[in-house]
Amino acid sequence: YRRLHTKETRLSQFNQTEIKAMLASYTKVLFVRDPFHRLIATFLQGMGISPSFSSFVQEVLDSGVHNSSVAWKPLVSLCWPCLIQYDYVVMFGFLRQELGHLLRRAGLPAGSLLPELTDSQVQWTYRWLSEQMFSELSAQQKKQLSRFYRWDLAAFPFSSSFLSD
């Protein structure tokens, strides 16, 4: 299917038979990240024009799932994990461990290809940031965010997410 694949081609442009054949010919890897961490990263990168995290979250909630930016859109609406059989799901925060395993399974030398990743520092930093940012939100915003990302929270093991409560 290389001749059909271009930078602009979307999977939805093919019929079911072609989609099935293409997906079977690839190793499918899905990288997932706690939705609350994605919101924090998006806010810190200045992708929202809001002066505070709370007002940024309100913009996200007001946009709705269908009109939201790819930066904070629920993962299940982007990658369709219920329809596509992914070979690997790699969790942000465990990249070094999981990428090493993935590279070894692909027959590649894992140690030399991986950047220096400090997963424990990343996890600690996001835990601290999450606590700070979550405390800025109203009880209603917390509840609405949990509902906004309910399918992500159900599909992936984000057990330590602030939105799981």
TrEMBL record:
The keyword Ribonucleoprotein does not apply. One of its GO terms (molecular function) is sulfotransferase activity. It is a single-pass type II membrane protein. Its EC number is 2.8.2.-. Its main location: Golgi. Keywords: Carbohydrate metabolism, Glycoprotein, Golgi apparatus, Membrane, Signal-anchor, Transferase, Transmembrane, Transmembrane helix. It is an enzyme of class 2 (transferase). GO terms for biological process: carbohydrate biosynthetic process; dermatan sulfate proteoglycan metabolic process. Pfam families: Sulfotransfer_2. It is found in: Golgi apparatus membrane. One of its GO terms (cellular component) is Golgi membrane. Belongs to the sulfotransferase 2 family. This is Carbohydrate sulfotransferase. The gene is Chst8_2.
